[in-house]
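User: Please fill in residues for this 137-position structure.
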């Protein structure tokens, strides 16, 4: 994918999780194809629901792995709290798309998308320190 935000250096060393993260990035990038689309557009909403399902699955997998890998509570708990903030932001996009004008909804969406991107590219990357050697590439 040209100009992809995914780089192989972003892998944390657990192939199944890395592929899920890469897939999430690809979904976000597909939503970027036409950022001026109305958030009420059926095509956008279908893609957004696909992204929502992928986010939920990724976070569930991530939380299970953090427990399995023994990530200390002082690292795990803020990470899980970040998941809650992202899911709240996701709900704000739905609310904005149904109740507000296009510009406001688009601003809410862009803020959500940037927060999710930051989580995938930075916060999740910190988990590389906890991947057991027997599970890494």
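Assistant: Residues filled in for all 137 positions:
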């Amino acid at each position: 994918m040209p100009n992809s935000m995914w780089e192989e250096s972003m892998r944390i060393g657990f192939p199944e999780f890395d592929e899920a993260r890469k897939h999430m990035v690809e979904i976000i990038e597909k939503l970027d194809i036409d950022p001026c689309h109305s958030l009420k557009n059926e095509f956008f909403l279908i893609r957004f629901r696909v992204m929502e399902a992928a986010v939920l699955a990724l976070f569930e997998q991530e939380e299970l792995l953090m427990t399995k890998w023994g990530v200390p509570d002082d690292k795990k708990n803020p990470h899980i709290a970040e998941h809650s903030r992202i899911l709240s932001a996701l709900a704000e996009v739905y609310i904005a798309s149904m109740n507000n004008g296009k510009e406001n909804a688009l601003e809410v969406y862009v803020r959500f998308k940037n927060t999710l991107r930051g989580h995938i590219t930075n916060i999740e990357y910190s988990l590389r320190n906890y991947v057991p050697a027997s599970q890494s590439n």
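For context: The two ends are 23 Å apart (CA to CA).
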